[in-house]
Specification:
The chain has about 240 residues and is of the alpha/beta class. It has a single domain, classed as TIM Barrel. The protein has an 8-stranded parallel sheet. Strand 3, helix 4 and strand 4 form a beta-alpha-beta unit. Helix 4 packs across helix 5 and helix 6 runs parallel beside helix 7. The C terminus is likely disordered. The protein binds pyridoxal-5'-phosphate.
Length: about 240
């Protein structure tokens, strides 16, 4: 699949319009919603095109793919890991990603702390919450996240910036509203418990970003609506398309 430069530009314009309309409906300033460009399975050329259009935040799901891709992309982009992280990949993850949005267990947080310490880095993290409780999804149970928040907050190399969730897929985005609302409420509860603001609510993707913005999202993670359909996962992510 080729991603023509003009099509990324056209899609970005449409996407900005969707985001602005949702912000307007919710009485929010569009500047309060960040766009994370999800480039998984798309080639470095597509990242370069998007970066050329002014995007700076990019998301990848897999450490293996990112390790090959990031060095081929323009420098000084802000990379976010958004896919499940296995503890044996934490070293590479800390080296590659200033932000890890998919922190889904205390064990993983402890492992990240160790690696960050070794590499003398600080990692911005989001806690991934499994709001819907689907067995197929990674992420904290909301009550457990609240219970373990204090322990995570003691890990000095990790800065908790907020929460992230993936809503269950549904053709009717309106159905995801309670999930997003619940994440915002949990964020408020976590913030009250820490006595510190947790500014980031990473929620909403290509299909449901309007509802997420209406419910307070500060970062939508968009792949398809920006880059087009993803090349098949069986294809080498760094291969020719
Ligand atoms: C792939 C992915 C996205 C982007 O999904 P689209 O529907 O293509 O916008 C967002 N968040 C996560 C965690 C993803 O894995």
């Amino acid at each position: 699949m080729t991603t023509a430069p003009e099509s990324i530009e056209t899609r970005l314009a449409l996407l900005r319009e969707r985001m602005a309309t949702a912000c307007h409906r919710a009485g929010r300033d569009p500047a309060t919603v960040e766009l994370l460009a999800v480039s998984k399975f798309h080639p470095p050329e597509s990242v370069a095109l998007a970066a050329g259009l002014g995007l700076t935040h990019f998301g990848e799901s897999r450490v293996q793919e990112a390790k090959v891709k990031i060095p081929q992309c323009p420098a000084r982009l802000d990379w976010h890991l958004i896919g499940h992280l296995q503890s044996n990949k934490t070293r590479d993850a800390v080296a590659l990603f200033p932000t890890i949005q998919s922190v889904d267990s205390l064990d993983l947080a402890v492992e990240l702390q160790k690696q960050a310490e070794k590499q003398s880095r600080t990692v911005r993290i989001l806690l991934e919450i499994n709001v819907s409780g689907e067995a197929s999804k990674f992420g904290w149970n909301p009550d457990r996240a609240l219970a373990e928040l204090g322990r995570i907050n003691e890990l000095r190399r990790l800065e908790i910036h907020g929460l992230m969730t993936l809503a269950p897929y549904t053709p009717d985005p309106e159905k995801t509203r309670p999930i997003f609302r619940r994440l915002r409420e949990l964020r408020d509860a976590c913030s009250a418990q820490l006595g510190a603001p947790l500014p980031v609510l990473s929620m909403g993707m290509s299909g449901d970003l309007e509802v997420a913005i209406e419910e307070g999202s500060t970062m939508v993670r968009v792949g398809t609506a920006l880059f087009g359909e993803r090349p098949r996962p069986t294809q080498r992510p760094d291969g020719p398309d």
